Amino acid sequence: MGGRNDEISATSGLQSPLIKPLRRPHKPRRNYFALLCAVIASMASVLVGYDIGVMSGAVIFIKDDFKISDVQVEVLVGVINLYAIVGAAAAGRTSDWIGRRYTIVGASGFLFVGAVLMGFAPNYAFLMFGRFFAGAGMGFAPLIASVYTVEVSPASSRGCFSTFPEVFVNFGILLGYVSNYAFSKLPVHLGWRFMLGIGLIPSVFLAAVAILIMPESPRWLILQGRVGEAKQVLIRTSDSIEESLQRLADIKKVVGIPASCDDDVVQIPKQSNHGSGVWKELFLHPTAAVRHIMITVVGLHFFLESTGMDAVVLYSPRIFEKAGISSSDHKLLATAAVGLTKTLSVLIATFLFDRIGRRPLILTSIAGKTISLIILGTTLTIIEQSDERMTWTVGLCSAMVLSDVAFYSIGMGPMCYVSSEFFPLKLRARGVSVGLVMNRLSGAVVTMTFLSLYRAITIGGAFFLYAGIAMVGWAFFYVVFPETRGMDLENVEGLFGNLLWKFSDHE
């Protein structure tokens, strides 16, 4: 009863001049329950990052143990991106069908099975079978983490909370690098098994925590007609009662539920959310705004991967070897520095997305990445054409690898998840899945061709190619990317509709 009286008092305060002076004018405190929900949803990304990071070192030992070729190494490393396409394509429909929370549980289940199968793989073929389950989980996890976090976060913290999946991906990559170093002293046939198999522990923990603590997304609940439950979740995840009621009213308006409906008494019918209708709205008969959103999100995911980040992360030991670092321990330590740099950079981005904004960060990110790739390509070319080892080139090459991952993680990487806020409610899960399919497809091309590419055009030439793509990416983001900082989620769609973004009107 007390909660209901509080709601009445709060809504009365919006109308009565006698109560208005009692409202606090300063910025509301951060909602810690929403923070907790965002953290739990993003924990699946630890396993995604761990698999990326650990494979960079594990593949060295797998190659020695199974006596596989470089082409088989490329397939082993890159095929998980193709498998992830299956998960990403299914995740949109699944999250609309069974809900965001249970989709997180499903993702952790796939990652658990993948870790077990890979850890006990007796041969290359069985290892590839385990990679399928890990890849499917990697397709589910990023989508549901970004969609759930965007939907549960209050507007004041949405940019910050939406970067959490990328924070946890980078933390997972760092853990993978540390695992490589920790288990590298074991016999060859055991070391890589421990590296890959230990990922089963956090997957079990995630599934248990998600079931016990996380509420369902309020927006998904409203789509199912469960408005009363959605209201309670919004009250717990908003900065104030007034904000929760406003968020509820906005969502009801978008879904088509009359604002005057007394949802505590009248049963609300379930809203239609059929897959065929969603796909038609996305591809066959999109509005100008939806078309602009799809171009922006698909382009974002393409440039995220096609600028070579997966090549740097997964093949960093080979890059450092080309730079002149010959010791295995030193290569693994340098690789761990890559993971640490990525993690620290994305933590900085967490504080900047709601202060500086999305647009300045992503433009700065891809510009810095372009410069880093050009210098890295130049340095590696000098190293290849020189007959003697030069200390300054080793240092500069290492610095540019760290600079590349730092610039990526301060803008482009987190934006992969923050961009979930662009889509309207009904289209969000499927729209994000389309973006992730492009992400994984581009990642598969990069990771499965990098070794062959640098043999064909030199390793320096490979990074010049990635730099050229990054230049095109900067122009793309400048033209199509709007600023969404601080906007209510239901109003973000209104920023889209013109391909040439008139950003000057919103600064």
UniProtKB/TrEMBL annotation:
<feature type="transmembrane region" description="Helical">
    <location>
        <begin position="32"/>
        <end position="61"/>
    </location>
</feature>
<dbReference type="GO" id="GO:0015293">
    <property type="term" value="F:symporter activity"/>
</dbReference>
<dbReference type="InterPro" id="IPR045262">
    <property type="entry name" value="STP/PLT_plant"/>
</dbReference>
<feature type="transmembrane region" description="Helical">
    <location>
        <begin position="332"/>
        <end position="353"/>
    </location>
</feature>
<feature type="transmembrane region" description="Helical">
    <location>
        <begin position="160"/>
        <end position="178"/>
    </location>
</feature>
<feature type="domain" description="Major facilitator superfamily (MFS) profile">
    <location>
        <begin position="37"/>
        <end position="485"/>
    </location>
</feature>
<dbReference type="InterPro" id="IPR005829">
    <property type="entry name" value="Sugar_transporter_CS"/>
</dbReference>
<feature type="transmembrane region" description="Helical">
    <location>
        <begin position="360"/>
        <end position="383"/>
    </location>
</feature>
<dbReference type="InterPro" id="IPR036259">
    <property type="entry name" value="MFS_trans_sf"/>
</dbReference>
<keyword id="KW-0762">Sugar transport</keyword>
<feature type="transmembrane region" description="Helical">
    <location>
        <begin position="389"/>
        <end position="410"/>
    </location>
</feature>
<dbReference type="GO" id="GO:0016020">
    <property type="term" value="C:membrane"/>
</dbReference>
<comment type="similarity">
    <text>Belongs to the major facilitator superfamily. Sugar transporter (TC 2.A.1.1) family.</text>
</comment>
<dbReference type="InterPro" id="IPR020846">
    <property type="entry name" value="MFS_dom"/>
</dbReference>
<feature type="transmembrane region" description="Helical">
    <location>
        <begin position="282"/>
        <end position="304"/>
    </location>
</feature>
<dbReference type="InterPro" id="IPR003663">
    <property type="entry name" value="Sugar/inositol_transpt"/>
</dbReference>
<feature type="transmembrane region" description="Helical">
    <location>
        <begin position="190"/>
        <end position="214"/>
    </location>
</feature>
<protein>
    <submittedName>
        <fullName>Polyol transporter 5-like</fullName>
    </submittedName>
</protein>
<keyword id="KW-0813">Transport</keyword>
<feature type="transmembrane region" description="Helical">
    <location>
        <begin position="126"/>
        <end position="148"/>
    </location>
</feature>
<keyword id="KW-0769">Symport</keyword>
<dbReference type="InterPro" id="IPR005828">
    <property type="entry name" value="MFS_sugar_transport-like"/>
</dbReference>
<feature type="transmembrane region" description="Helical">
    <location>
        <begin position="463"/>
        <end position="481"/>
    </location>
</feature>
<keyword id="KW-0472">Membrane</keyword>
<keyword id="KW-0812">Transmembrane</keyword>
<keyword id="KW-1133">Transmembrane helix</keyword>
<feature type="transmembrane region" description="Helical">
    <location>
        <begin position="431"/>
        <end position="457"/>
    </location>
</feature>
<feature type="transmembrane region" description="Helical">
    <location>
        <begin position="73"/>
        <end position="90"/>
    </location>
</feature>
<feature type="transmembrane region" description="Helical">
    <location>
        <begin position="102"/>
        <end position="120"/>
    </location>
</feature>
<dbReference type="Pfam" id="PF00083">
    <property type="entry name" value="Sugar_tr"/>
</dbReference>
<dbReference type="GO" id="GO:0015144">
    <property type="term" value="F:carbohydrate transmembrane transporter activity"/>
</dbReference>
